[in-house]
Amino acid sequence: MHRSKRASTRWKGLTLAFALLFILSSGMLIHDLVRSAREQAANEALVQRVEQEVSLGEGTSEMSNGDSVSAEAPTPERNYQPLVQENSHLAAWLMIEGTEVDYPVMYTPDSPEYYLRKAFDGNYALSGSLFIGADCVPDGSNIIIYGHNMNNGSMFGSLDSYANEDYAREHQEIIYDLIQPDGSYERLTFEVMAAFYSRIYSVDEKNVFRYYYSTDLSDPDAFQYYIEEVLSASLYDLGVTAEYGDRLLTLSTCSYHTEDGRFVVVAREKHSSTSTR
Questions:
Q1: For 136-181, what is each residue's pLDDT tens digit?
Q2: Listed residue (155, 84, 105) closest to 125, CA to CA
Q3: ∠ CA(247), CA(249), CA(254), 5° rounding?
């Protein structure tokens, strides 16, 4: 009888413990979902702030000299000046049509990972912000941008979709707005040429490709080495390569295929698409 009572008490204790664990886990999950939604909403608000439509209106418009001109379709433009005034660390904006990627890119050369866990406004954010890596500059020969691989697809959470060749071909164009201190910007268009898995290598490992050290490709040999290694590591061949003098864009995020894993996408600039605004 006593043994039965002890067993019943033990079972009730275990049931209570599991119930408390479930409640705690559920609470943490809800907290994470709320936090993720809040951070994503804040980023979407930034997009809304910089977007504006410029249109001459419906039908025809009358110019100051009395002449009429045909209306033009709304042209999407971006006004970065208010954001630059709020935060001078804003150096660029990255966009990939048809994906979640539509984010500011931060630049703090004295502390490159400053925005690793910070939002645009400087407050703590688990998803952080996209940022330009150490020893890189926003208009350099190889612009390396880092971002978190978030479960909800935000930041670079969708970057590893480039492991699929069909996806890469459907999302081959990357827009990079290079923003000046006065808020004006130069729009650069890049074309994806490679995607590959990598990792952070220890200092004693030999004959490995440390893509994250290739920040300055102004030397022809360094440029050629980078291109050869990138194309060799690529998961597929898109028929795109680069020549010395081409500006490159390298996007990097965490990958869980191995310890300290990384997933990397490399693109070259399409020269004819550069415009200043």
A1: 999 999 999 999 999 999 999 999 999 999 999 999 999 999 999 9
A2: 155
A3: 160
Extract the tokens encoding 31. Answer: 């907290």
Query: Same domain for 93 and 6?
Result: no
Whether 95 and 11 share a structural domain? no
Q: Residue 116 in contact with residue 128, Cβ under 8 Å?
A: yes
Residue 93: inside a domain: yes
Please name which of 35, 50, 141, 57 lies closest in space to residue 95, comparing C-alpha atoms: 50
Question: Do the Cβ atoms of 105 and 93 come closer than 8 Å?
Answer: yes
100 and 10 both lie in a single domain: no
How far apart, in whole angstroms, are the C-alpha atoms of residue 93 and residue 104? Answer: 4
Query: What is the total count of domains within the chain?
Result: 2
Structure tokens at 263: 């997933």
Q: What is the pTM of this model?
A: 0.81
Q: How far is CA 113 from CA 56, 74, 147, 148, 251, in A?
A: 43, 38, 10, 12, 15
